[in-house]
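#structure-requests
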Amino acid sequence: MIFLSFDIEEFDNPLPYTQTLSFEQQMSISKSGTTRILDLLLQKNVKATFFCTANFAMNATDLIDRMVTEGHEVASHGYYHAKFEIKDLKESKDVLEHLTGRTVFGFRMPNMKPVNAMAIIDAGYQYNSSLNPTFLPGKYNNLNKPRRIFYEGALCQVPASVSSLLRIPLFWLSLHNFPLSLYKRMCIGAIKKDGYLNVYFHPWEFADLSAPEVKLPSYIVRNSGNVLINRLGDVIDSFKHKKYLFGTLKECCNLFPKD
C-alpha cells in the first residue's frame, strides 16, 4: 500500500532564509501548490491524506471542500505551523471537523517534532504520523525508534518511510535531489521491507518559488514547481504499473490492527 501525504500549511518555512513574507503571500504560495497537487491526484485517480493546519484551512475553505469532495482524507497539522500548544490538538481537530463535516482521525506535528502520545489520544485522534525514524543532524535523531507502524497504548503510530538500508529518509527533499530512478528503487525497497510506503511533501514545493523575496537554499528549490509535479507523477505511474494500491492514512488502523 502506498500512502501519499501532504503537510498543508501557511508558507512560513522559508522565513529563516528570507525576508519576511506577509501572511497573504504565504497563503498564496501554499494555495497555488495545493491546487497543483489536487489537480495531479485527480488526473492520476489517487487518494491521499492532507495534514492541514487550522489556520490554513480557515483561510482556504474552497480547497478544503475540494479535498473532501474528491475523496481525500483531511487530518490535523496543528493550529498554526510556527507555534504549538497542547490545546491546539483538540482545537485544530474541532476546526477541521467543522469545516469538512467529517471525523478527523490523524495528527502530524509540524516539522515532525515529538509530541506526547497520551495528549494525542486525549484529543480524540486514532493515529499519529509525526515520527521520521532516521538521523538528520540538528533535526532528527530517531535511529533507535521503530521504522514500521506500531502502537503506543491505543494510538497507532505511523512513521515516515526510510530506505531499507541505512534509513535514508524518503521524504520531500529526497524527491527533489535524488536521481528519479534511485528514488523509485529506494521506495520499492522500503515497501518490500515494511509492507507499505508513507512519504510526505508540502504544497509550497509545487508552487513557483522564483519570486525575489523567496530566497531558499538550492537543495530546496532544485526540481521544485511544475518539475516536482512531473517527478511525483512519474513516481505514481511507476507504482501503478507495479499494481501497488494507494490509500489514506486513516486506513492504517484497519490494515495494521493492534495485536
